[in-house]
Structures are given as structure tokens and as C-alpha cells.
Cu2+-exporting ATPase
Amino acid sequence: ATPTAIMVGTGLGAERGVLFKNAVALETSARIEVVVLDKTGTLTRGEPEVTDVITDGIAQDELLRLVAAVERESEHPLADAIVCHAEQRGLDRLHAEGFENVPGHGAIARVANRRVVVGNQRLARREDVDLGMLAERREELAGSGRTVVIAAVDGRAAGLIGIADAPRETSAAAVAELHALGAEVVMLTGDNLATAQRIAGRLSIDTVIADVLPSDKAAKIAELQRTGRRVAMVGDGVNDAPALAQADLGIAIGAGTDVAIETAEVVLMRSDPLDVPTALRIGRGTLRKMR
Ligand code: ADP
Ligand code: MG
């Protein structure tokens, strides 16, 4: 690339808050064929809110008190949503002991002398929790695009907490523009498949890779690269950093974590998904000027 073309491209990006950290990033942007986007905090706002509390054999407030006690010890965004909801309901706080964070699964602690397990289906399965009559409700909630948190008390399924995280306003338009640029658009998430598929469907995303453990996100990128195509990964979380590094082009959401921003080669300062196709277009423009 000529230094002038690179300067022009970098400048155009800067005007829109699209920061290319180096010349290679600008050139790679022009050649991206697959764009992988993290769901939570990238395609969605990352401001989850509790919408449903369903219980079996326990009062709603009692369940929320137990679950909030565990989640108060966790730093997960879903945990924040649950704790906030319990506070809004004015529930008194219980003390949690022996807190254990299970990455990509949930968390476990003892509260009021009971063992409280809070997390996804994978965790429920691992802990041998039978959902019983809650199984059907879980499917309904997930099918409506809610993230479902399962709570078990002393080994028994006690409740479901449905959590919604609205897509960012421009996510659908960003996907449409990426399609117009000829890219395949993939959603990558640790959330469950039914929830992810519902949200992906609304955004017209081509492919969903769900139920991915934090430690497996980079391997999923490598799998896509094995098809011989150049892959960009867009993410915001600590979890996303290895995938951002693995991708041919790592793109971080500006509102994301420091680790993601440091790892990525492109940073979207406005945290707007529409700036992903903008980055690709600026890259293509730069390449054209080079020839
Ligand atoms: P994502 O890729 O969506 O950012 P994570 O890998 O952090 O998600 O977590 C994957 C899944 O594990 C979440 O969707 C959730 O179901 C479950 N999970 C993780 N931590 C917690 C927690 N503290 N409370 C409830 N569920 C959790
Ligand atoms: Mg995220």
C-alpha cells in the first residue's frame, strides 16, 4: 500500500471513530469474507433485564433472594441483571458462602444453608438437575429470545429467570450492509442455541454458533478459517480476546473491555455495528487506490 492511501484510509476511519491500529489492518479489512459477531454486548446492547421469573415449589421472592445472593458474588452481566431486579423488588440480602464461578456455565454457592446452583442448561446437566415441569417453560422462554437462567436449590430445579437483552438499533442494518458487501455473517455466543437463533433470525444472520465455552471461541474462528476464507471477529468481552487474536482481523466495540480493545486491530469508538461494514468499505477503498 502506498503511504498516502494508508493515510487517507486511516483518516477516513478516524472521522467515523473507526480506529485502524496499523496499515496491515486496513489492508486486511478489504479482504474479509466472513464476519463473526459476538452476541452479548456486540449485536445486543449488553444491558440485560429480567423479564420473567417462573418458580416451582418456592415463592418468587424467596427464589430471587437465594439467586441474588449467589449472583452478588459474580461479575457476569446476567448476574448484575438479577441482582438489580432483586433490589428493585426491595428484597433483603442473604449471605452467600463458598462461592464458585463456573466459566461459561454459571455459579454455585451456599445460601441460608442451602446449595444454590445458578446457570445454564449445561450447568444443570452437570449438576444432575432434572428440570421436570420447568423444561417446557424453559423452551418457551428461550424460543422467545430470552436468555434463561436456571436455579436449583439442594439439587432440585426451583425456578427459571428469563432475561432480555435488546439488539442494538443498527444491528439489523449492519448485517444487511455486510451482506451487500458479499460477506457471510455469523453469530458466536456462549448463550444457548434457541435463544441465539431467535435473535439471529430477527437480524437475518446466516449462521449461528451457540453454546460455545469461553475457551472454545478461538477454535471456532480457526474452524471457519480452515474453509480458506478470511475471517473478521467483532467482540467486546474478556471472553472474546482469544477469538479476536485468532481472527484475520479483530474488531473491538469501543464500549467493550480493555482486553478486547487492546487485542483488536480495529476499534469502533462509537460502539455502532454499522461501523463494521464501514471499516470493510474503507479497507476496499484503500486497496483500490493502491493499484
Ligand atoms: P457470552 O458468550 O454470551 O458472553 P459467557 O460465556 O460469559 O456468555 O456465558 C455463557 C453462558 O453461561 C451464559 O449465557 C449463561 O447462560 C451462563 N452463565 C455464565 N455465568 C453466569 C452467571 N453468573 N449466572 C447465570 N448464568 C451464567
Ligand atoms: Mg459479549
The first strand starts at residue 18 and ends at 20.
